[in-house]
Structure formats: C-alpha cells, structure tokens
Write a structure and sequence with these properties.
By secondary structure, the protein is an alpha/beta fold. It has helices at 11-23, 37-40, 62-75, 107-115, 124-133, 140-146, 151-165, 172-183, 192-212, 232-243, 271-278, 302-316, and strands spanning 3-7, 28-31, 49-53, 77-82, 98-101, 217-219, 222-226, 247-254, 257-264, 285-288, 292-298.
C-alpha cells in the first residue's frame, strides 16, 4: 500500500501538498488539475492511501471521479482536502472517504488543521504561505499563526514562491523539489533558482502591465484579452483593474479549446455560479471561487461565451 498526494500546481496546491508530505514523507507527489483528475487517479492503486489537495470537482468528469473515489475509499484510504465550491449534485455528507472541505479558508489551512499533530512548529508557515497565495490570509487561524512570526518576512517569502512558480506550469520537477524543501522546513528564499525566477517574473510582470493597456478590450461589464503573452490569472486581474470593468477575462487558445481565467473585485458577482451556468451550455466546463474562476470553452463558442457572461452580469448588477 503506497501513499499518493495529488495536488494543484499553484501556491496553495504546493503548500497544502508540502503539509501532507511532511505528515506522509514516503508519499509520491503527482500534480494534476480538475480536468485531468479522473484519469490521473488511475496512477494510484485502489488499495493505496490517496490524498487530494486543492483540486475542484469538474461536472464534466464527476461520474468517473466519484467512481474512483469510491473504489479507493472501499479498498484503501481516501482524503479529499479542498476549498472550491462543490457541484450542486454533490452532497458533502455522502462523499466517499474522508472529506475536509470549507469555502472560507485555503486548502493549505485545511491541510494544516488536519495534519497539525504530525507537524513541527516551523511548518505552520506553510499554511500561511498557501493562504497568502490564495488571498485567504484573513481567517482567524492564519491571523493567529501570523502572530508567531514577523509577518513582513513571511509575506516576502510568499512573494518569492508566488512569483517564482508563475509561468512554470508544467515544470513538475521544480515543483516537486519545492514541495520537498518546504516540507523539510526550507523557506522559498533558500532556493536560489526560485529567487532568480521570482525576480525575472516580477520584471516581466511590470513590462506586461504597460503593454496590456493597448491589448485589453471592453464589452459592457467585462474587459478581455486574447492570447496575451502573460499569466492568465494576472492578465485577468490587470484587465479589470486597468479598465474598472466588473470582470477581467483572459483567454488563451489551446488546440480547439480556449482556456479562460476570470477575476472580479465585486462582491455582487459569483463567478463560480456564472461559469457553472454558462459553460456547460456551450460545450465547455468551468468553475472556481466567487471572485476567481476559470473555464475551458470550445474555440468556436468563445464569442458566445463572452456575450453570455456580459448579459448575465448586466442583469445581475443593478448599478
């Protein structure tokens, strides 16, 4: 019986995996995403100990994912740790295995709470790094943990990690090394390559912000870009910020699909709800958080997607 940690490749996924790895040092680390989870779970055996961190459940693959969950929970051990909204057809109480789920904190915080008894005091920093990376550092627990440290240093370390992995989507060798280093109490700044990548990325970001002004297009309540050569999530943030649009949308063509990242600063908008409503009708899928979400839409339907999104925003927001 082996142990597997399936996790997302962003800061929260890396930090929650590092927490799980610190508590399960013989585990294999496997980076995945909502669209690939069903297939990737076949890497583990039914009788293995499987820990899943920071991976939302996609409606398009839900049946197969739940089948694998059930098989593993019956013969092995399954732990699902996540903070994304569940599909409406899924009942938290009826999920197979052990489920640690909350919309109100980062996955890193949830993983820390679950594995805390197996961790050293220094490893509390991992929950803080992950929470900062996912903009969920104002929770009661994270604020309590921050009091143990000079928070300015921890925000610096978080920035090194966040900026260092930006643009390293499929560099899984680097990310596995980071998970191992973090689990062994090495802060992000101890990795010289990560420091160099963070500085490079920050300089690229400054240049991208200046160029984005001439690329962003506005349609009603949305500001969007196509194939802008920068991070999708950050492009969406700056598209909204530079135009004061309600929602920033960054689109990137990939084969016959378009990957879409969306961000909003409005408390009136629920991007997760909108994407789960709109995307399936157009042959795509989507979801995430209220203010930060993503979708994958067929290329020929992307204009219709933008139109539908703008229409719903116009209807939902009165001002």
């Amino acid at each position: 019986m082996g142990t597997w940690i399936f996790t997302h490749g962003d800061t929260d996924g890396i930090c929650s995996a590092a927490i799980a790895f610190a508590a399960n040092p013989d585990a294999h680390i496997f980076f995945t995403h909502p669209y690939g989870l069903a297939e990737d779970l076949d890497t583990a055996g039914d009788d293995d100990n499987v820990i899943i961190c920071d991976i939302a459940l996609s409606e398009n693959h839900l049946v197969r994912v739940l089948q694998r969950f059930t098989s593993i929970a019956e013969k092995g051990k399954l732990t699902y740790i996540d903070h994304h909204p569940l599909p409406e057809t899924v009942s938290k109480d009826l999920m197979p295995g052990r489920m640690v789920h909350s919309l109100d904190s980062s996955t890193s915080e949830l993983a820390y709470s679950l594995f805390q008894s197996a961790l050293e005091p220094f490893q509390a920093r991992l929950a803080i790094f992950g929470a900062i990376g996912d903009n969920q550092d104002n929770t009661i627990l994270i604020q309590q943990l921050l009091k143990r440290w000079d928070k300015r240093t921890l925000y610096f370390e978080s920035g090194v990690l966040i900026q260092g992995i930006e643009g390293q989507k499929r560099n899984y060798e680097l990310k596995r090394r980071i998970v191992s280093n973090l689990a062994h109490n090495m802060p992000p700044s101890a990795d010289n390559q990560l420091i160099e990548l963070a500085v490079q990325q920050t300089r690229l970001e400054e240049s991208a912000i200046r160029k984005l002004v001439t690329h962003v297009q506005v349609m009603g309540r949305i500001a969007y870009t196509f194939n802008f050569p920068f991070s999708l999530g950050k492009t969406a943030i700056y598209a909204a910020g530079l135009t004061d649009a309600t929602v920033g949308v960054a689109c990137e063509e990939w084969k016959d699909m378009v990957d879409v990242s969306l961000r909003t600063f409005s408390m009136e908008v629920d991007l997760n709800r909108l994407l789960r409503l709109i995307a399936p009708k157009l042959g795509g899928s989507g979801g995430g958080h209220k203010m930060a979400a993503g979708a994958r839409i067929p290329k020929e339907k992307i204009k219709a997607f933008l139109n539908e999104l703008n229409k719903h925003l116009t209807q939902d927001i009165k001002k």
